[in-house]
Design a protein that fits this description.
It contains 12 helices and 18 strands. The chain is an alpha/beta fold. The strands form 3 sheets. Strands 1, 2, 3, 4, 5, 6, 15, 16, 17 and 18 form a 10-stranded mixed beta sheet that branches. Strands 8-9-11-12-14-13 form a 6-stranded mixed beta sheet. The longest helix is centred in the last third of the chain and has 25 residues. The N and C termini lie far apart (44 Å).
């Protein structure tokens, strides 16, 4: 894979002079092109929601990055918090309805909604979210008035290029049959959809909310899924949910998979239990900038960003930006090798204690339905994760005793 550090001004001259970018692919385009920006999880609740409610603060959240987002043909992101502020004001992951206007004014034109939080407030919350996004004039991906409609391709044809989008998410949440609905991830179903829609478009983009949080690497089986989608004709696969950047894969057919787009803006402290894992990385991410022609992706570049203490997205200039890109480069290289052992080790180290904290929180409060549902999802791989975690704890204790 081609990895090269370049100046972000090679993309747009108005970007800061000391802002580096990571060029992942660079081929001279042929014929008409389309420019796309893609970012990861957008959480407009918690401290971010309070910033939106502050006089003069709301427009500042995306002000620094808005010129780039608004200057391309399509700007895409995953909205993690339902716009249910009128239904559940101040509740977990419930964002103000005004967030839709902010997204529109900041340049977003397509928002993915098929994720694990979109149904936190049931059908009413999803209705409010869809209505607000559509009223703001932004396209929605992965949702529809019915499940069948949610599974349909969204078109963003530009400059004579036919561009299709498919969006789904692994939520494990039951939906109301009345709708609206979102597309629950199913590997075979998604693969068939790519094969079905590929003939109707010049470029097909797939967005999936999936994976494990706070991991450097995707699940090995998710990498296999992505590669199958690329082989089936997807031009670009965009994954989100991990809340940290993961690696990027580029194929010889000028197709790309971003295994996790990371956070764009998100309050890492929000939740029943604080999970202080990779806090710095949760507040760092990237705007992925793509130039596509009829033959696929001609240029793919990652431009680093970070979230400041006032919940504003800033360009990560200087050393901070270089650190973000170095990490992205390293992880992308790791994906070219067998990373399964590193994945399993990280999962044990980063997930076991946080899962136990969450389960204890609900046990202590008598939330037995949550505990029972978690128990139903227990699999052999979780046992392996716990065993590795215990083994690591024993080794750490042994070192302390020797010292």
């Amino acid at each position: 894979m081609q990895l090269e550090f370049v100046s972000a001004q090679s993309i747009e001259t108005f970007l800061p002079e000391n802002l580096a970018a990571l060029r992942l692919l660079d081929i001279p385009p042929e014929g008409p092109t389309v420019r796309i920006c893609a970012v990861g999880d957008i959480g407009l609740s918690g401290r971010v929601g309070r910033a939106l409610s502050s006089t003069g603060q709301s427009q500042r959240v995306f002000a620094e990055v808005a010129p780039l987002l608004g200057g391309v043909d399509v700007s895409f992101g995953n909205l993690e918090s339902p716009l249910a502020g009128d239904i559940a004001p101040g509740s977990l992951f419930s964002a103000p309805v005004s967030g839709a206007t902010l997204l529109k004014n900041s340049g977003f034109s397509l928002i993915h909604l098929a994720n694990n939080h979109v149904y936190d407030y049931g059908r009413a919350g999803l209705v409010a979210t869809c209505d607000a996004i559509e009223y703001a004039g932004i396209g929605t991906l992965g949702v529809g008035k019915t499940i069948a409609e949610a599974k349909q391709a969204v078109r963003t044809d530009t400059n004579g290029l036919r561009i299709g989008w498919l969006g789904c998410g692994r939520t494990l949440v039951s939906q109301d049959e009345l709708g609206p609905n979102y597309w629950e991830f199913d590997e075979q179903e998604l693969h068939r959809a790519v094969q079905q829609h590929r003939a109707d478009v010049d470029l097909l983009i797939v967005s999936i909310h999936i994976g494990l949080m706070h991991m450097d690497y995707p699940r090995p089986e998710h990498k296999i899924i992505a590669e199958k989608l690329l082989d089936a004709g997807a031009t670009l696969v965009l994954m989100h949910h991990a809340h940290v950047l993961q690696g990027v894969q580029v194929t010889s057919k000028r197709a790309v998979c971003c295994y996790n787009l990371g956070n764009f803006v998100f309050d890492w402290e929000e939740g029943n239990v604080k999970i202080p894992i990779l806090v710095k990385e949760q507040n760092e991410g990237a705007v992925f900038h793509f130039v596509l022609d009829r033959n696929g992706i001609a240029q793919a570049t990652a431009i680093p960003v970070w979230v400041d203490s006032d919940c504003a997205v800033r360009w990560a200039t200087g050393a901070r930006g270089q650190d973000i890109l170095n990490r992205l480069s390293r992880i992308s290289r790791d994906l070219e090798c067998d990373y399964e052992a590193a994945f399993k080790r990280q999962r044990a180290e980063r997930h076991t204690s946080s899962i136990l904290k969450v389960i204890w929180f609900h046990l202590y409060r008598g939330n037995w339905s949550f505990v029972m549902n978690s128990a139903k999802q227990f699999r052999l791989e979780h046992l392996g994760m716990i065993v590795r975690w215990l083994g690591g704890a024993v080794r750490r204790l042994a070192k302390v005793s020797v010292a």
